[in-house]
Design brief:
By secondary structure, this protein is an alpha/beta fold. It has 13 helices and 14 strands. The chain has helices spanning 2-21, 28-36, 62-75, 91-96, 111-116, 158-169, 182-190, 201-211, 239-257, 265-268, 274-280, 296-304, 307-314; strands at residues 39-44, 52-53, 59-60, 81-86, 102-103, 119-121, 126-128, 130-135, 150-154, 175-179, 196-200, 218-220, 228-230, 233-235. α3 packs antiparallel against α12 (296-304). The longest helix has 20 residues, at 2-21. The protein is globular.
């Protein structure tokens, strides 16, 4: 019996060591991406600061940069991406059917979506909340003053459901004016068909900056009526791809926390800090655990910068969108951004 126990212990320890050291299998999604030489990324049809194309067809935004970081990590080139613009109704079907590899499109994580769509939520890239925008001339100062008023909203979104819940909970009898496309909803608001427009606060700021004839004529009310943790989603059934997308996002956060930037990434490769060495592949080879090479994260950071740089460039106070960092700051600076360690 003693010998049997010793044998079982040795087998257990050997198996544990093998599991620790073994590289990951590539996974079918990564194989397909490498075969075609492109990451196919589902994005918003046009939300400035998050995903929007300019007049020459060049895409930019926070969600776009996440796709670029993933492409740099897995293909070595942040430009090897096919962008597929999707509206709210199309987005989940496109991912489920395999039309896109990853959905990086201001999409809220919810229990229903997590449990019923056959999709995996990866990591939060922006913590948001639903708000309201009204004309300054309406003199409305609070969402509670919207009793009996018309509110433009896009269908097929958590926004539409939250509006109904908020109206019912506060006995406001708000009258939703529903549109399938975001552009139709915002157009109706700016033409005066509705007294208010509702979506995520970040989307309100983006819309006001991009579409209002005079942004100063519109105000975003102070109340947030929901929690909207936004981030990329992937299909279930490919754990390897799920891990890659998730850990690229965590890596961008870890890079910021450890002072690794787009400008200094090469210089930081000489750092004696073990955490930095793991992120940049100069110490442990963390890439092999994901089916990638050791430079995976260094390439991503060099392509897009760390999370803080991505935020600042696309939606931060110095950008056209002018959103405060707020809860999207690092955990050690009063925010909610907290990445598990790369080790």
């Amino acid at each position: 019996m003693k010998k049997l126990n010793q044998s079982l212990l040795a087998l257990s320890l050997g198996t544990a060591a093998l599991m620790t050291a073994a590289p990951a299998f590539a996974g079918k999604t990564l194989d397909a991406i490498k075969s075609r030489g492109q990451v196919v990324c589902g994005v918003n049809t046009g939300l400035a600061g998050f995903s929007a194309a300019d007049s020459s067809g060049k895409w930019s935004g926070l969600d776009v940069d996440v796709c670029r970081a993933v492409a740099a990590a897995v293909l070595g080139d942040a430009e090897k991406i096919k962008y597929v613009p999707l509206n709210a109704q199309q987005r989940f079907t496109a991912l489920q059917s395999g039309e896109v590899d990853v959905l990086s499109r201001n999409t809220t994580f919810t229990l229903t979506r997590d449990a019923s769509l056959g999709l995996n939520m990866t990591a939060v890239t922006y913590y948001d909340g639903q708000g309201f925008m009204v004309p300054v001339k309406s003199k409305i100062k609070s969402a509670k003053q919207l009793k009996g008023q018309t509110v433009c909203v896009q269908s097929g979104t958590t926004t539409e459901k939250n509006l109904t819940d908020y109206s019912k909970a506060n006995n406001l009898n708000i009258k939703p004016v529903v549109f399938e496309k975001q552009e139709a909803a915002t157009g109706a608001y700016f033409s005066g068909r509705c007294i208010a427009y509702t979506t995520d606060a970040s989307g309100l700021a983006s819309t006001r900056n991009k579409e209002a004839k005079n942004p100063d004529e519109h105000v975003i009310l102070p109340e947030l009526i929901s929690k909207e943790p936004l981030g990329p989603m992937v299909r279930r059934g490919d754990d390897e791809w799920f891990a890659i997308v998730k850990w690229v996002i965590y890596g961008l956060l870890e890079a910021e926390e450890n002072g690794i930037t787009q400008a200094n990434v090469d210089q930081m490769k000489t750092s004696a800090d073990p955490s930095v060495q793991r992120i940049l592949g100069t110490g442990e080879d963390t890439g092999k655990l994901l089916g990638l090479d050791k430079e995976w994260m260094a390439r991503a950071i060099k392509a897009t910068g760390n999370y803080g740089e991505i935020f600042e460039r696309n939606v931060g106070p110095k950008s056209a969108i002018k959103l405060p960092r707020g809860v999207n700051n690092q955990w050690n600076k009063g925010g909610l951004m907290y990445a598990p360690p790369i080790r």
